[in-house]
Amino acid sequence: MKVKIKDVKSRQIIDSRGIPTIETEIILESGQIGKASVPSGASTGKFEAIELRDNNDKEYNGKSIYIAISNIENYIKPKIIGLNVFNQREIDLLMCSLDGTDNKSKYGANAILSVSYAVARAAAKEIKIPLYKYIGGIYGNMLPIPMMNIINGGRHANNKLDFQEFMIQPVCSKNVKESIKICAEIYYELKKIINKQGYSTSVGDEGGFAPNIRTNNEALDLIIQAIRDAQYTTNDVKICLDVAASEFYKDGKYLLEGEEKELNSDEMIIYISELVKNYPIHSVEDALNQEDYSGWKKLTEQLGQKCQLVGDDLFVTNYKKLKDGINEKIANAILIKPNQTGTLTETLDTIQLAKKNNYKTIISHRSGETEDTFISDLAVGVNAGQIKAGAIARSERTVKYNQLIRIEEEIECNN
User: Fold this and answer.
1) Which of 71, 212, 231, 300 is most buried, most CB within 10 Å of its CB?
2) Annotated active-site residue in 206, 259, 285, 346
3) % of the chain at pLDDT higher than 70
4) How many CB atoms lie within 10 A of CB 141?
5) Is residue 337 annotated as part of the catalytic site, yes or no?
6) Quick check: helix, strand or coil at residue 102?
7) Do domains 5-128 and 137-414 have the same CATH topology?
8) Is the dihedral angle over the CA atoms 167, 285, 400, 49 positive or is it negative?
9) 5-128: in CATH 3.30.390.10
């Protein structure tokens, strides 16, 4: 088998927000090609791996990524040509070593991840198996339950809502197809309700509606009504929140402008606890600031047995930060965003650590997405159990759900 890497090609493409990102191709001696593109976040954690941009105001308002592409061409490509494509860990750790920084700031996490993804995809294509099977082997066959975004706020929308995402999760569903159907039907009903109340039905970055409402309670009440109008109950469908609290944390206070509230850490915990008490909320992501560790400890003690407490900015898919969180007994779940850490290998190591310590895992998209479906295969391959891929709208989101439908059919046919 001609499994050595023969060539590497990278290019600048455009993501779902019209911002440049990287697409990379790994070409093998056999002629097989693995292609992958990487996403970009709007709401980013302080400790994420660095996404390298040119900062040239004359190109895409400083957002072009020619330097990152040059790093692939001049520094990464010469070192990985001739390597066995199946040596994913060796290749990923080599790129980390070449970069030499803790946060990928030299070559850019966007550059390194595009290569890492493309290596895995080329390897899977070379032996003619689906990507999820290559990642998980015979073990990877669990389809995830979607946490589907239906209302956007915060950095993802131009409205007064402080919380970033209001999602639904069809816990009653038996399979992916049914999950998508349930979420779609509730999404349709929500659109009717928002329209009837005179709000715009335009959508935010991730496809959720962005009505010009002010309070989180208003958003939750709209969702409850939509669930019921779609002929489901709150036992069938739960609500999940992405608070993204770091985005409105200033000088030791949580500034909920839409609510006209200024809360300290203890008051914020009370506020979140009341929402969990009064609504069918199954999961709360980034309920507190990414460095409010004492608050996170109190929150976990208070709500850890009642709902899923997800660390996104808190853990940034980072093995060490998750290990520290486990030791401190904060949160009980982690959001997995591979571009926060920069390689597939590091992502898999973090997932494995979470699973060993009974932390739930949710594979996630970013607000700036491409048509790449890697996270769908990743969710199945690692048996994550849950996925965030946005609303049932906008093709860069729906392509992830459509890939899950295909994977589900394939697994069903093989069983």
Assistant:
1) 71
2) 206
3) 99
4) 18
5) yes
6) coil
7) no
8) positive
9) yes
